[in-house]
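Write out this protein's structure.
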Amino acid sequence: MKSYVRNRIRDLRTSRNMTQQQLADLVEVTRQTIIAIESDKYSPSLEVAFRISRVFGVKLEEVFQYNRVK
């Protein structure tokens, strides 16, 4: 079985009129890291994932979803 992590970062960010650079600055990562996470090319460390959820003021599960595919 294959598994992957999906995220809602782009939706959360755009609903708050936040740029990728603004989010990157708040999370203390590069803009390229945010781009890679948003496009599901990179799964963030647990620490970065928690920082992202705190920036948006939502639970971790509201930002990231773990899926298993048969």
